């Protein structure tokens, strides 16, 4: 990971350095701090260096010193693995809001004609450190100008060693142009986490989610947190607007969640046809054709006591949804826009 920000107060110790400390500490254990010494408790016993008198001086191959070097190398590797897989590293959350960190892009996978899944490496098996619904800020450069945009990782919040971001590329989009030039192995600059949603289980009896396109990203974080908590009895009703059936993102994941008693999803497709949908849809998909207008919102999102509505889409989608919801009687205090 490349720490390229200016603020040295924060995140100034790289994970690589922590792991590399093993190399130094095994040479000179007394240099370790007390806390570092505690970490070494789990290490296997260090090989004992032969005395000069242990060598017979006959030029044996391998010599006792060669064997010692091999043993030492293996021991270092084992210590490194313990350090990487151990609690100290895995419990670390690497993100920093004040400073951009470079994360290595490890894969790019097409999801639809214009949306791609980008996976980034987090060294040492650490976690990103996001809460449900939070996003991160990407820094890019185009025509020698620095630009920033927000994105919401869709990988599990507890994922260790990687994070995934689902990004739609727009033909005229500035950051989209920058992202199109990414290659596997590039270091990409992110900082965070940001976001004001603070999800508390069982506060609302029902959460209605209105999402459009990649606006599904923050919803998936909240859905996962609710469904993975057996004590959380919140009902989730997702209304997901896309252009066509093929544009539905994270469909497999949504199908899997549909098996939970407290989750349901309805798709609203603005540019699809009856013929296509009949051919491609799964038997238990609920699909509406047309735009998510005032009439449809009043049917799908009736005013619910102890309910909350989450909205994430384009600026115009968000604005339209808030207007439709107000007509139905929803108050702004029960509406959250990502
Ligand atoms: C909190 C938050 C989280 C976000 N998370 C994600 C995410 O996980 N994945 C993701 O792909 N995007 C996400 N976005 C949107 C993202 O930040 C950018 O706005 C988007 O990638 C477009 O940036 P751009 O520089 O390519 O386009 P810009 O240069 O900003 O825009 C150029 C043109 O592209 C079109 N355009 C741009 N954005 C949109 C849009 N959202 N809908 C329709 N047309 C648009 C418009 O015609 C616009 O005039 C998020 C936004 C916010 C605020």
Q: Care to describe what's here?
A:
The chain has 338 residues and is an alpha/beta fold. Among the domains are: 94 residues, Elongation Factor Tu (Ef-tu), domain 3 (Beta Barrel); 132 residues, Nucleotide-binding domain of ferredoxin-NADP reductase (FNR) module (Rossmann fold, 3-Layer(aba) Sandwich), CATH 3.40.50. It is built from ten helices and 13 strands. The strands form two sheets. Strands 1, 2, 3, 4, 5, 6 and 7 form a seven-stranded antiparallel sheet that branches. Strand 10, helix 8 and strand 11 form a beta-alpha-beta unit. The longest helix is centred in the first third of the chain and has 22 residues. The radius of gyration is 26 Å and the shape is elongated. The N terminus is likely disordered. Bound molecules: flavin-adenine dinucleotide.
CATH fold descriptor of the domain at 206-337: Rossmann fold
Q: Mean pLDDT score, rounded?
A: 86
Helix content: 25-40%
Residue fraction in strands: 15-25%
Shape: elongated
Sequence of secondary-structure elements = EHHHHEEEEEHEEHEHEHEHEHE
Q: In this structure, how is the largest beta sheet organized?
A: 7 strands, antiparallel
The rounded Rg comes to 26 Å
- N-to-C CA distance: 29 Å
> What structural category characterises the helix and strand content?
alpha/beta
Report the bound ligands by name, code or SMILES: flavin-adenine dinucleotide
Q: What is the CATH C level class of the domain at 206-337, in words?
A: Alpha Beta
From the 3D coordinates, which CATH architecture of the domain at 206-337 would you assign? 3-Layer(aba) Sandwich
Q: What do we call the CATH homologous superfamily of the domain at 206-337?
A: Nucleotide-binding domain of ferredoxin-NADP reductase (FNR) module
Number of strands: 13
Number of helices: 10
**pLDDT under 50 segments (min length 5)?**
1-19, 22-35
Protein name: NADH-cytochrome b5 reductase
Pfam families: FAD_binding_6, NAD_binding_1, Oxidored-like
GO molecular function, one term: cytochrome-b5 reductase activity, acting on NADH
EC number: 1.6.2.2
């Amino acid at each position: 990971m490349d720490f390229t920000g200016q603020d040295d107060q924060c995140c100034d110790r790289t994970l690589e350095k922590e792991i590399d400390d093993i190399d130094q500490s095994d040479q000179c254990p007394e240099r370790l701090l007390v806390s570092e010494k505690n970490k070494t408790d789990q290490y296997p016993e260090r090989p004992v260096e032969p005395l000069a008198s242990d060598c017979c001086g006959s030029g044996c191959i391998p010599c006792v010193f060669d064997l010692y070097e091999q043993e030492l190398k293996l021991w270092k590797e084992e210590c490194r693995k313990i350090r990487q897989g151990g609690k100290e590293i895995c419990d670390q959350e690497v993100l920093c809001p004040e400073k951009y960190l470079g994360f290595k892009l490890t894969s790019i996978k097409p999801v639809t004609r214009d949306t791609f899944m980008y996976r980034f490496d987090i060294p040492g098996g650490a976690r990103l450190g996001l809460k449900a619904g939070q996003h991160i800020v990407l820094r890019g450069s185009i025509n020698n100008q620095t630009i920033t945009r927000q994105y919401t990782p869709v990988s599990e919040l507890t994922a260790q060693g990687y994070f995934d971001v689902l990004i739609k590329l727009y033909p005229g989009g500035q950051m989209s142009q920058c992202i199109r030039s990414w290659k596997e192995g590039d270091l990409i600059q992110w900082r965070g986490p940001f976001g004001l949603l603070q999800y508390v289980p069982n506060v609302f009896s029902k959460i209605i989610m209105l999402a459009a396109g990649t606006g599904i990203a923050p919803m998936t974080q909240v859905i996962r947190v609710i469904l993975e908590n057996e004590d959380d009895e919140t009902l989730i009703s997702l209304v997901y607007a896309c252009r066509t059936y093929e544009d539905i993102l994270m469909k497999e994941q949504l199908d899997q969640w549909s098996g939970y008693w407290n989750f349901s999803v309805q798709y609203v497709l603005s540019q699809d046809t009856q013929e296509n949908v009949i051919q491609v849809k799964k038997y238990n998909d609920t699909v509406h054709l047309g735009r998510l207008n005032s009439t449809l919102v009043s049917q799908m999102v009736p005013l619910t006591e102890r309910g909350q509505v989450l909205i994430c889409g384009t600026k115009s989608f968000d604005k339209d949804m808030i207007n439709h919801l107000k007509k139905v009687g929803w108050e702004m205090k029960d509406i959250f826009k990502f």
